[in-house]
Structures are given as structure tokens and as C-alpha cells.
């Protein structure tokens, strides 16, 4: 018996997609997860009643490939042999040509905030994928956040910005908290101030309609504390460091794709 959607891989991203789709109202009987690791299968079966949990791929209208990159091609072949009609890959650095199946493939680059339903995912069509395939992929991935459409050639840059981006933000959060402790605040209070500042600033950036430069100017009084702080950040090359980080991550994504 086939299912509407099969998730291959029950790791963090696969489980995030599963939980997001169920929370969005997808009936559990439409879903299945193929996971080779028995303890993970047992946990998923207990946590998600009604979802079919299997060891190997089964027939499905659509399949999300959420395995490690070095196993994607074999997993795709097994899914097509089992009856998959279209594939969605979330493996970093693996091109649709490298997957190379007889069915349409859509490639995606999600990021870890998908684990809390606040991710951003870029999707790109393989050579045989249609608008209908992209619509299907977007419908799957919107359960865990925002979805944007790009050319496949842009996915390495997407990786550098949003795929790796959460790590940059976490580093900023860590540094802000450490600075608060250095300035005399207890660690718990410093964490609360730093983390909530990042959350609130991000929401303001998304919801206000103003760009980052305008919002920064609005909080920077002439000769004030923020002006003094941002001067030190510019002196320390923070802007340049972010530029170099994104370019380095982009280049590494290209290297992985060539491996």
C-alpha cells in the first residue's frame, strides 16, 4: 500500500518536517518514515501514532530524501524502485544531476530553525521538474517555515547565507552574552537579554518594512552609546568578517558538490 509522502531518514530534519506537517493538519495515515536505525524507528513509532514507520523505502507519491549526502543517490534509486513518483532532496551539496533518477527531483536547502517551525528553505527544480513539482515541494516545506524559489546554481550561496547562517547568529548570541557577563551581569540575565534582543530585533526587521540600515539608524543617537558600540564593531571588522564567512561557506558548498 502506497502513501502520499515518504520521509527517508528520521533524523533531526526528517523529524522536523514530520512534526511540522502533522501540526499543520496533515493526516498521519498519509505519511511514512523510512529509517534504518531500529531504536529511532521505535521512538518515532511511539511518538507519532498513525504514521507508518518502516526500515526500507515503500511506494509513495512523493519522497523527501533527508539522509546524509553520501547516501542520497542510493536512497533515491531505492525509492524510485519502490514506486516514488517525485523526489525532494534536502542534502547539502548534492546536485539534482548527481541524484540522477528517472523521476523529477527538486533540491532544497533548509536551515535548522525549521526545528521550531521558523526555518527558511530555498528550493530549485531539477532538469525534469515542473512547476507542479515545485508547488508540491513548497507545500511540504512550508510546514516548517518560509519557502523561496531559486535557480539551482544559487543554492551554494543560499547555503552560505541561510544554511550556515544560524551558526553565525548563535556566535553573535554567545558573544553578546559573554560581553554582558564581562560588564558585570549574571550569566542567566545576560543570556535572557542577549537572546531576547536577537529575537525581537529579527521580528522587527521582518515586520516593520524598514531595512536594516534604517532600523540601525533609528536606534543610533548622535554621540550616544549605540554609536560608540557600532564604531567598535566596524573597527573590529565585523561587517567584513560576515562577508568572508558567507563567501567561505559558499565556496565549501561548491567543493562538496564537486566531490
UniProtKB/TrEMBL annotation:
Superkingdom, taxonomy of origin: Bacteria
EC number: 1.5.1.2
Gene Ontology BP annotations: L-proline biosynthetic process
Single Gene Ontology MF annotation: pyrroline-5-carboxylate reductase activity
Keywords assigned by UniProt, alphabetized: Amino-acid biosynthesis, Cytoplasm, NADP, Oxidoreductase, Proline biosynthesis
InterPro entries: 6-PGluconate_DH-like_C_sf (IPR008927), NAD(P)-bd_dom_sf (IPR036291), P5C_Rdtase_cat_N (IPR028939), P5CR_dimer (IPR029036), Pyrroline-COOH_reductase (IPR000304)
Record has Oxidoreductase as a keyword: yes
Database matches in Gene3D superfamilies: NAD(P)-binding Rossmann-like Domain, ProC C-terminal domain-like
Domain Pyrroline-5-carboxylate reductase catalytic N-terminal positions: 7-92
One Pfam family of this chain: P5CR_dimer
Any Gene Ontology CC annotation: cytoplasm
Entry annotated with the keyword Ribonucleoprotein: no
Domain Pyrroline-5-carboxylate reductase dimerisation: 152-256
Catalytic activity field: L-proline + NADP(+) = (S)-1-pyrroline-5-carboxylate + NADPH + 2 H(+); L-proline + NAD(+) = (S)-1-pyrroline-5-carboxylate + NADH + 2 H(+)
Pathway assigned to this chain's UniProt record: Amino-acid biosynthesis; L-proline biosynthesis; L-proline from L-glutamate 5-semialdehyde: step 1/1
Binding site for NADP(+): 66-69
Annotated compartments: Cytoplasm
Listed PANTHER family: PYRROLINE-5-CARBOXYLATE REDUCTASE, PYRROLINE-5-CARBOXYLATE REDUCTASE 3
Family the UniProt entry places it in: Belongs to the pyrroline-5-carboxylate reductase family.
Function: Catalyzes the reduction of 1-pyrroline-5-carboxylate (PCA) to L-proline.
Protein name: Pyrroline-5-carboxylate reductase
Native organism: Solirubrobacter phytolaccae
